[in-house]
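Journal club side-thread
Mid-discussion, someone asked how the predicted structure for our own chain would compare to the paper's figures. Pasting it here so we can look after the session.
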Amino acid sequence: MAKPKDESRERRAIAAALEAFRAAGGLLRTRDALNAGIHPRTLYELRDEGRIEQLSRGLFRLADAPPLGEPDLVTVAIRIPDGVLCLISALAWHKLTTQIPHEIYVAIPRNAEAPRIDYPPVRHFWFSGDAYSSGIEVHTVDDVKLRVYSREKTLADCFKYRNRIGLDTALEALKAYRRSGAVNVESLMHFADICRVKRVMTPYLEAVL
């Protein structure tokens, strides 16, 4: 049986932990929770009591926080901070495909470790140099920063990886891009050059655009 002093200490620990979550916008990775002074025992007690929920391994959120609009994207943005939404996931973000990706496609730096994430399902691609670092846009999703390749960079990537995602996917996206009315051929060719697919893309650009 816990002594009154022990119970008081536990209540203070729980109150401090909940305050740390609120200060972080309701989301904390395990390591950030530990750095904030939350004891693992307190963290898992909060989870078991239903006061926080586990979005993915190592990522917790206040249970009474407003529902997330894009929980999968938020999880990936936090769990893979160097990741950039790419290929079919980026096409879906920019509304350039009719496909519904069953995995989240993420580009990571060539020397990065493969992401270890149990949910949502993630398909990663190692990009290097300018092919990784160029064309990145930063959007805010549920108060979390999400990195996504621009429309033009994504199209160039799709032609580069056409053997893995299908040339029909790249062509569908290019036609949707044309229909959008906001076409930037100079930017397309710039990223085609970076991705080394200028010779591949040029005939399709001439035919479609």
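Post-session note: The CA atoms of residues 74 and 144 lie 6 Å apart.
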